[in-house]
Q: What sequence folds into this?
């Protein structure tokens, strides 16, 4: 069973910021928090990952709560190409453990 | 730089048969992991290989096995196929062993249908 919980779907408007939440109720102290996204008929694509601090890269930002029980993926300015299923993932000794994913819909 | 290549892309097999799937990682990557994706269970970790050694194995029966060659290419094998093995099988490669603090690059997957 997935160790993380995410909303099934979210909707946002193009060119607006998107905040995708994830709960990590049983995360261990050494597991990293990753986010991947998947387009139809493609494999997952890496977005970002971190351990305790907030992280930024060219695709997104990752905000990690101080107790690490939750994280938020932030897309600063959503485009139509950002429409995908976004997976919150815990990286540990058992490989990557994927959540059920949030289907992000972007309205033009 | 070529991405992760999985072959074949699609496969149809009969219950009871066995199947071998292939994965060529990104050049220079020595870690290869395999995942099964189904609508019901989502993405689940199968196993990881690094330098020809299995490092980790997920919670799958012994019918699922794999190996890695000296050129880092990997194969996974499923014996005595069951209908429930129908899934998208994904391979991911990474530079470092383990997936804790490293980015994984996924292939497009092999869609296996068992009839």
A:
């Amino acid at each position: 069973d997935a160790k993380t919980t995410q909303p099934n779907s979210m909707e946002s408007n193009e060119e607006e910021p998107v905040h995708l939440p994830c709960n990590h109720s049983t995360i261990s102290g050494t597991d990293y928090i990753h986010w991947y996204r998947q387009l139809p008929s493609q494999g997952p694509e890496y977005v970002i990952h971190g351990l305790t601090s907030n992280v930024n890269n060219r695709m997104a930002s990752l905000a990690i709560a101080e107790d690490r029980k939750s994280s938020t993926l932030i897309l600063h300015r959503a485009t139509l190409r950002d429409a995908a299923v976004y997976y919150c993932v815990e990286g540990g000794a058992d490989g990557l453990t994927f959540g059920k994913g949030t289907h992000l819909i972007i309205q033009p | 730089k070529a991405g992760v290549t999985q072959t074949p892309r699609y496969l149809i097999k009969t219950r009871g048969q066995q199947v071998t799937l292939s994965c060529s990682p990104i050049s220079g990557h020595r870690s290869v992991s395999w995942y099964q994706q189904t609508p019901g269970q989502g993405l689940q970790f199968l196993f990881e290989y690094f330098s020809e050694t299995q490092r980790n194995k997920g919670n799958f029966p012994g019918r699922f096995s794999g190996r890695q060659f000296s050129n880092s290419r990997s194969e996974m094998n499923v014996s005595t196929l069951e209908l429930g093995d129908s899934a998208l099988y994904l391979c991911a490669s990474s530079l470092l062993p383990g997936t804790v603090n490293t980015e994984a690059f996924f292939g497009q997957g092999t869609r296996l249908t068992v009839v």
